[in-house]
Design a protein that fits this description.
globular, 8-stranded mixed beta sheet, OB fold (Dihydrolipoamide Acetyltransferase, E2P), Gyrase A, domain 2, RNA-binding, alpha+beta
RNA sequence: GGACCCGUGGUGUAGCGGCCCAACAUGCCAGCCUGUCACGCUGGAGAUCGCCGGUUCGAAUCCGGUCGGGUCCGCCA
């Protein structure tokens, strides 16, 4: 990363507050910044002067500079002041090793108050003080003055800079795409912007530049990227905001391994440039098929910083003739009905209290399990409420399959395969956190790919794209893009299409989905077939993807790409799990901007001009 | 759409039927102090306990509603 510009001097300052060192001793200097703290000894006043570059101690001595001392005694926290003086080495024994500038101080000759400040509503100068988040959001400009926010926004700036550098160095073209576009079918609700020039019509804000970047591929921009703002009108979470930032990229003439290889190299370079001190757990990144990830980790975004894999207990419960014979009816019936009995081992949790077990059981219920069986290993035997029902063979088998040793706790879920994996996967995350199994510094990237192409939507009797409606199909599965009857409008859950796998890949970091992409359907005929399976009629296809379908008739190159969540990436690189911590001005869970007080009631004139009026709104604020 | 948690001087917390016209820390204001760096010492101001209603002889405290914030499920890539 290049160093900061050599000089940030301005008419108000010769140096920043993080710059002065002993080699400058004896020289005059002028600093400007905010009053971080003031220590008043009557005839002697210390002021810690702060800007985003650091803190420098200013000394104002009434004997040397009576006028400056007079001004300094009126100064308060967060006042903006300028100080002119002499850089001096501190007296031996009074250096402050906590400050980068701690060996020197500025002996003031002149102090000027540039602007006074009200007493702030919370501590700007205490990095550890807990503050209610709504207060921080309301006074975000003060919150951002605080060290932690400065650090995170700086990291984010470095991240975006590194992203741009890698792409520019690799032949990518940065292209901006419009924010006023047409609704695209990506599952989420659109934000709508009414048109004044064409009353009665609306634009949609992009959920992502998906279609536009594919059109850029048709346009011959063979490597495109953009740091793009995206909008989705869905309920918020710690990792979801209504507007967020994606690194969006697309490449032409590529197959799946080629795009993944580029992205992987880019991600590694960007990570190393942004947080060189954090180790990347494994390079090249591990690659899991979707099925495998679900089977082993119960998640399509596994946290690989710790193992604790799921295991299948059926082998310990099956007789030679294939019939289940664990001795515990719930297990046997589940297996007999085609379900799965799977488990996870929590190392060292064998001594868990009743209360802890109850909590885990309650969690499992919330995750959708009917129950949770727990077995602890003590003195070489399995213990637990249902241990007595289990046959000797099953008990031995469980211990082996679970890899459970003395003092471990084995948690078992019997359910459909899908649900058992899901519940255990969530338990794995929960246990990993409770047992602090993950190294917080480590960056564990991995790939998950080969997702099923479609999911059956019983209500609409159609095949929904699991990820992106433009994802391509794995070449050998191409013949599966059809229905039982061969008529694409006569769809059923038994269609071959249900078995088709997509050339879709997600990149995962520490248990979070960082991004997802695919090699696209670039052939016109396949695209039409896929849309058809997704239940779009010809008219709907023309209405919604007219430009794209048409463009694909003019020579679309094979292409693929990805979109990465920049907010999530910046958050994880900053040890945060809440993207609000890396956004300058985020919104609350109910979508409010507490600082600007948005959203707000519309201006009647604006509404009239657009031919709009609220109907059936409960009550205006 | 649903479940749960939180709301008390500027800030962070304590108090959870009467001991509370509310306690502690910090901040704020005033005074003193020439080597501090979370300076120290002395004194002072500052809260109708988010809001509305109910229960009760009595409510910060219990109940209902409402508003705001958060976590999670649904939703969302």
């Amino acid at each position: 990363m290049p160093a900061e510009p050599a000089s940030l001097a301005t008419p108000y300052r010769t140096h920043t507050c993080g710059e002065l060192r002993t080699d400058g001793a004896g020289a005059s200097a002028r600093l400007a910044g905010w009053v971080h703290r003031r220590r008043d000894y009557g005839k002697l006043i210390f002021i810690d002067l702060r800007d985003r570059h650091g803190i420098t101690q200013v000394v104002v001595d009434a004997a040397d500079a009576p006028d400056a001392h007079d001004v300094a005694s009126r100064v308060r926290s967060e006042f903006v002041i300028a100080v002119e003086g002499v850089v001096a080495n501190r007296q031996p024994g009074t250096e402050n090793p906590k400050l980068a500038t701690g060996a020197v101080e500025l002996q003031a000759r002149d102090v000027a108050i540039l602007n006074e400040a009200k007493t702030p509503p919370f501590y700007v100068n205490d990095p550890d003080a807990p503050i209610d988040e709504s207060l921080r959001l309301r006074y975000r400009y003060l919150d951002i003055r605080r060290e932690a926010m400065q650090r995170r926004l700086l990291l984010r700036s470095r991240l975006v800079q590194a992203i741009r550098e890698v792409h520019h160095a690799t032949g990518f073209v940065e292209v901006e795409t419009p924010n006023l576009i047409k609704s695209t079918p990506e599952g989420a609700r659109d934000f709508i912007v009414p048109s004044r020039l064409q009353p009665g019509t609306v634009y949609a804000l992009p959920q992502s530049p998906q279609q536009l970047k594919q059109l850029l591929m048709v346009a011959g921009i063979d490597r495109y990227f953009q740091i793009a703002r995206c909008f989705r009108d869905e309920d918020l979470r710690g990792d979801r905001q209504p507007e967020f930032t994606q690194l969006d990229l697309e490449m032409s003439f590529v197959d799946e391994p080629t795009v993944m290889a580029f992205i992987e190299r880019m991600v590694i370079e960007v990570s190393r440039a942004t947080v060189p001190e954090r180790p990347i757990r494994q390079v090249p990144f591990p690659v899991f098929r979707f099925e495998e990830a679900m089977e082993r980790f119960g998640s399509d975004k596994p946290d690989l910083r710790f193992a604790m894999e799921l295991f299948d207990l059926a082998p310990a419960m099956t007789a030679d003739d294939g019939r289940p014979e664990s001795g515990f009816r719930v297990f046997d019936e589940t297996l007999a009905n085609g379900g799965r009995v799977k488990g996870i081992t929590a190392p060292g949790m064998g001594g868990a209290t009743r209360r802890q077990i109850d909590e885990l059981t309650e969690l499992s219920r919330r995750f959708g399990a009917r129950g949770l069986v727990h077995l602890s290993v003590a003195e070489g035997e399995l213990h637990g409420p249902i241990a007595k029902f289990l046959s000797v063979g099953t008990r031995t088998g469980i211990r082996e399959l679970a890899g459970a040793g003395e003092g471990d706790l084995v948690l078992v879920v019997a359910d459909t395969g899908e649900r058992a994996n899901d519940v255990l996967g969530r338990l794995r995350v929960e246990l990993g956190a409770r047992l602090e199994l993950a190294d917080p510094d480590e960056l564990a990237y991995c790939w998950v790919h080969r997702f099923p192409m479609y999911q059956w939507d019983e209500e609409h009797r159609r095949w929904d794209a699991t990820h992106n409606p433009f994802s391509g199909v794995v070449p050998e599965d191409e013949p599966l893009l059809t229905t039982v009857s061969g008529d694409l409008d006569d769809r059923s859950p038994r269609d071959p299409a249900g078995r088709a796998r997509a050339m879709q890949y997600d990149i995962v970091l520490n248990g979070w989905e960082l991004g997802g992409g695919s090699v696209r359907i670039w052939r016109h005929d396949l695209l039409a077939r896929s849309f058809n399976l997704q239940g779009y009629t010809l008219e709907q296809m023309r209405e919604r993807f007219g430009a794209m379908l048409e463009a694909f008739e003019y020579g679309a190159p094979p292409h693929g790409g990805i979109a990465l969540g920049v907010d999530r990436w910046a958050a994880l690189l900053s040890y945060q799990t809440n993207i609000r911590e890396v956004m300058a001005f985020p919104k609350t869970q109910s979508g409010s901007d507490l600082m600007l007080e948005a959203p707000s009631a519309p201006d009647e004139e604006q509404f009239a001009e657009l031919g709009l009026r609220f109907v059936g709104v409960p009550e205006k604020r």
